[in-house]
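User: I'm putting together a teaching handout on how multi-component assemblies are represented. Below are the sequence lines for each component of a complex, exactly as they appear in our records. Could you produce the 3D structure of the whole assembly as structure tokens, so the students can see both representations side by side? Please keep the chain order the same as the input.
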Amino acid sequence: GQNIDQPTEMTATEGAIVQINCTYQTSGFNGLFWYQQHAGEAPTFLSYNVLDGLEEKGRFSSFLSRSKGYSYLLLKELQMKDSASYLCAVTVRRANNLFFGTGTRLTVIP
Amino acid sequence: GAGVSQSPRYKVAKRGQDVALRCDPISGHVSLFWYQQALGQGPEFLTYFQNEAQLDKSGLPSDRFFAERPEGSVSTLKIQRTQQEDSAVYLCASSPLLQESSYEQYFGPGTRLTVT
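Assistant: Of course. Below is the structure of the complete assembly, with chains in the same order as your input.
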């Protein structure tokens, strides 16, 4: 099976930077996704990493180290609307579906 | 354009009743997935369709769960003789490409099923 681990909850201050970590142990790792999910809403795509390194997209960046089985999502200039759950998900060879972690619930405080 | 839609958004069923949950994927999307999300957890894979073919149903928790996509567009997830442990949000997702696990999946808002 796939084992994906991320913190359950985090709190950060408006305007600050927060890093959400994800570690994984999988067989046949292919790539890693980050999704954002507001309460009661659909998960929405944030980023995809397949190669080692940092992918930057506006206020959000995602990093992957395949050798360490490690990724992080970096959110800069936090806004109140960033309060949501952040889901780390991996894809593996010979399967088309996403394997999700439990999600990290981020609360942004003034 | 329209995203993935699901109906109903909320469903309350008495234990033992059958339910049917509908998913309308983005037009033209080949791949369709169903996931189950328990409260405070990440989504868990149930089943996968490529057009009308159900290629993977390894995540269906029991033979009470059945899914179909007869014309390769709309899909229905049916749960027979519902149990309390079936209470969860059922998410549908679609993707445009064939067997390309690097392509993002577009999720619907989900159906929240409560079994009493």
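A couple of points students might notice: The two ends of chain B are 37 Å apart (CA to CA). Chain B touches chain A through 27 residues (CB under 8 Å).
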